[in-house]
Amino acid sequence: SHFHTGSHHQHLAQYSSYSRHFIQTFCIEKETVAETAQEASPNDSLHKVEPDTSFWKQKLLFGTFMRHGEVHRSVGQHQHNKPVHSGISSPFHFSCSSQIPNLILATSMCNLSMIKNAILHLNQSNLTTLPELDRACFAQKLLSMKYVVYMHESQWLYPKKPALGFDGDGPFRRNAQEVKLLAYIQFESLMTADCICWNSAFHMNTFLESFGKDYIRNFRMEKSDEENIMKQIVQKSQVLHVGIELRNRFGEASDIREQHIKNMHDRERPIILWNMRWEYDKNPIQFVEALKYLRFQKKVEFSLVVCGGHSFQSREVQKRWFHDQLAPFKDDLLHVGYADSDTYTRLLIHADIVVSTAIHEFFGISVMEAIYCHTFCILPDDLSYPELIPQNFHLQCLYKKKGKRGLNHLLANAVTSWKDLPYDELRNQSKVDNFDWDKKMAHEYDKILQQIAGVEDSGKKRKYDENDAVEDG
């Protein structure tokens, strides 16, 4: 992983803890990438990004351009998020066939083509120095190793303009040149992969339609070649939803329901929840405008929980903007800003209505966490949300951009009837438990990755053996 933080880190760490397979994690260190970025082109406006705010760009851009020797020094080895071996000259340099993994799983923030080329380059010497029998086994396993890319996000589909009225000068802003380069890096990964796993059907379908229509054609190749490329990507693609830690983090569903119902009886007004990043792609201005509509036009009373915040400390402009916009609701705020795990759990269990105004969402982990915690939802009738919400709840939960079924209308209906909302029905029919790592998703990942790798599985968790660790040289 070139971007081993946030939801990317959470995704892999949680899967590792529930999987039956032995998983090792490699990530590029921040200092190595920053140095490479400075050396590569210190005066180039494309590459001139601030390390603290745009480190993900540096990892994706310069993780691709690093020479093989720098890959050796910059990649760390972990199991379940903990170092398992020290003094490694390279985690991709295998001294015997037993050290070669069955499968490489790369995030969408990696250049899988670079990783594959590095592995083949670093192990060329073994194909000439090992004894003949060992050499044949080594070569067979090395060349049969499978490569999978998990598409958390797509650079090509990220909103290119901030929502009106909100300063979008954060690290997720990219200029046109960056967009094309970052998209090309992901394109290389898709072409290299043996299998492409998408976190939602919406993500997969939107990407395939837009990328084929708007990006591939930039290469000005023959139409038959365009069609062949897209056919290859389609044939390798499948949906593998994001796993979420639910029961082991938030508790048993029956206990949560009991706590929520008791809390509702103890108060006179609903609690509205926002549990997303304060970024322009989550469109916070629309959320604030809806709150103002409820308070000043509909004269509705409510309490407010605003979780989340900024991933990078440099976004003081956005932070001040958000706090200024929430000033009219200062007496209604039960919480604003970052919440630790225990606080977040308590806030979700007490909340009644979770709201999303996102203009960009490939899955929706925070919404599914809220639904698991017995919270009703008001979401855009767009993006991945129709895929997650049962069809018979679309009219009540999913708002249109225009018309009578807009955000203000649906939210007002929910807030004024909050004690009678079908919390149980939404939670049960959305089948949110199916996204739980412990209940289903870890098994689903294991099964799919095992099939791709073409190996049998004993069904037991494989314990780490230090003899499997990559050795020096």
User: What would you call the shape?
Assistant: elongated
Main sheet summary: 6 strands, parallel
- Helical residues, percent: 40-55%
Gap from first CA to last CA = 23 Å
The gyration radius over C-alpha positions equals 24 Å
Strand content: 5-15%
Order of strands in the sheet with the most strands? 10-9-8-11-12-13
Number of discrete helical segments: 21
SS elements, strand count? 13
Q: How would you explain this protein's 3D organization?
A:
It is a single chain. By secondary structure, the protein is an alpha/beta fold. Helix 13 packs across helix 19. The chain starts with 5 loop residues before the first helix and ends in a 20-residue tail after the last helix. Helix content is 47%, strand content 11%. The chain has a 6-stranded parallel β-sheet, sandwiched between helices. The protein has a 4-stranded parallel β-sheet with strand order 4-5-6-7. Strands 1-2-3 form a 3-stranded antiparallel β-sheet.
List keywords for this structure.
disordered C terminus; 473 residues; alpha/beta; single chain; 13 strands; 47% helix; four-stranded parallel β-sheet; 21 helices; six-stranded parallel β-sheet
